[in-house]
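Morning!

This is the sequence you dropped in the shared folder:
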Amino acid sequence: MTSTARNDTQTTRPDDPPPPGGPGSPPPPASLSRTAWRRLWGGRGSRAALIAVGLLVLIALTAPLLSRLGGWSPTAFDTDAVDPYLGGLPRGPFGGMGADHWLGVEPVTGRDLFARVVHGARVSLLIAFSATAIVVVTGTAAGVAAGCFGGRVDSVLGRLMDLTMSFPSLIFMIAMMSVAQDVDRVLLMTVVIGVFGWPGIARVVRAEALSLRHREYVEAARACGGGPWRILTRQVLPGISGPVIAYTTLLIPGMISTEAALSFLGVGVRPPTPSWGQMIAEAVGYYETYPMYFVVPSLFLFVAVLAFTVLGDALRDVLDPRGGRP
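The structure's back. Tokens below.
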């Protein structure tokens, strides 16, 4: 009798949930990174943007190798590829495209367009990524400090954000880049662009930190004796990581455009260092007689800005769903 009762109590009913880890148990929840990657790769637009961004980064990293494969450095002149009797226009169709010059050559100088475009990608992405890193680190630190500490710290940082945003940043960048002469132009552009870009992300982070500061789990951690540093690193920073990552991706196309605009105006990267904006500025006088000289760098710039913008929008929808909704 006792044995039968024990067996009845140990029998599992059909409607009971399966034990954890059993064959019928639900799969464990996927991590945020896996979920984000699955959603990004699942959409056609975001997948194309990921592929384009990956190719651009690969081109920038392997620019010296690619130019050696093409057989020309970005500063080498090929006078045989241009016709001096036609004002230095390239010989052959489509600007001299062929086995020797894959994307053609520059007029007058005969420099290889493929080598200059891939090295221009290296310069543009280096400045964009470095300036974005400065903006994100500075803006996140200022936003977290303003949102978590409040009071006088919030007031001082808020006035500093307002002061920085009130400057006509593009005009100030042009003035600073014009005055500075014997300096590293890439480093100077990175610092100048980064200095004026941090208030935007600082305001986003401050708003997120203010909302997280009064959440129940933060109050519980504070009641359990958690110090300010522990609460900041364990509760606040993980909560704002999603919006920061999404905002970071959206910053990069703006940085690429700013670098191209400064180089186009002649105050950015100087020759012979190649830059997309510089190449577009030089091609303005040839767009009627040699349109490929204008199309090639413009197409690379367009693809870079579009790819990072689409990827940033997709990341924002995945990591910060409230960002695009009222």
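Headline: The mean pLDDT is 81.

More detail when I'm at my desk.
O.
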